[in-house]
Amino acid sequence: MRRVLVIEDDLAIANLVEIHVKDLGCVVEKVGDGQDGLRKASDGKFDLIILDLMLPGLGGLEICKELRSVNRTIPILMLTAKSEEFDRVLGLELGADDYLTKPFGVRELVARVKAIFRRLDLAKQEQQSSDPKEICLGDLCINPEKRKVTLTDEKIELTAKEFDVLYLFMKNPGRAYSRQELLDIVWGYQFDGYDHTVNSHINRLRTKIEGDASKPRYILTVWGVGYRFAEAEELAARA
After folding, report:
1. pLDDT for 160-189, tens place per residue?
2. Where are the alpha helices (DSSP H) in 70-178?
3. Digit-coded pLDDT (tens) for 90-125
4. Torsion angle, CA of 76/177/153/139, rounded to 10 degrees?
5. CA distances from residue 22 to 5, 17, 27, 37, 213 in whole angstroms, order as listed
6. Which of 209, 184, 205 has the alpha carbon at shortest distance from 195?
């Protein structure tokens, strides 16, 4: 049974989320304070954290940043107000997997949670499939089972979404993906108007895996389309 932590100080919203997430067969715990929420998220084994942006004690952005700083891959669904677009984007850049804007509908909440759980299930299936345990292209290697990335044998720390984007690329070198395709595949549903979310993740990936992010070797821009990962022959020619 999946375990979900709801960090939300508005009791009415927290109760609403609890009722409908429980209907998905989940065990739900609720916390109304940021400091307590971070402590609970750090100590417990949860399958999803539903995190309010504005919290007493410690804000949602700080909690998200703190969790990701220790390379936790647990999915984070952030709750934000309509007026908090900048913070919402910053939350995604800090490693939140998704967000919901208040007020939100029950069907949308359930759809987002289901999409996150589908991605978790797919990741587990990939680990158990006949896919190679490790993919190496150039000096970059990715191990989907251990969710580990190394560059010239040095470990690279990635957020959950950065890892998912990179793994998709490295499984399909040379294949061009539009920004919308990446949003659909990696985030699990259409994210209309948020192409910059993909751009932010690509930019951060490049700073972590490229020698010179302004002249990328691995993640290449396909003008008018999106991005692709360099093929083995291209990497060998540039070595």
Report:
1. 888 989 999 999 999 999 988 888 888 765
2. 85-94, 106-128, 160-171
3. 777 777 888 888 888 899 899 889 888 887 777 676
4. -170
5. 11, 8, 6, 19, 44
6. 184
Q: What residue ranges do the domains of the chain occupy? A: 3-126, 130-238
**CA 58 – CA 219 distance, rounded (Å):** 36
Residues ≥6 apart with Cβ < 8 Å to 130 = none
Which of 74-83, 103-112, 207-216, 227-236 has the lowest average pLDDT? 74-83
- Which pair of structure tokens corresponds to residue 53? 């942006």
Q: Give the architecture-level CATH label for domain 130-238.
A: Orthogonal Bundle (1.10)
Query: Does 3-126 match 130-238 in CATH topology?
Result: no
CATH superfamily of the 3-126 domain = Response regulator (3.40.50.2300)
Q: In whole angstroms, what is the distance from residue 185 CA to residue 183 CA?
A: 6
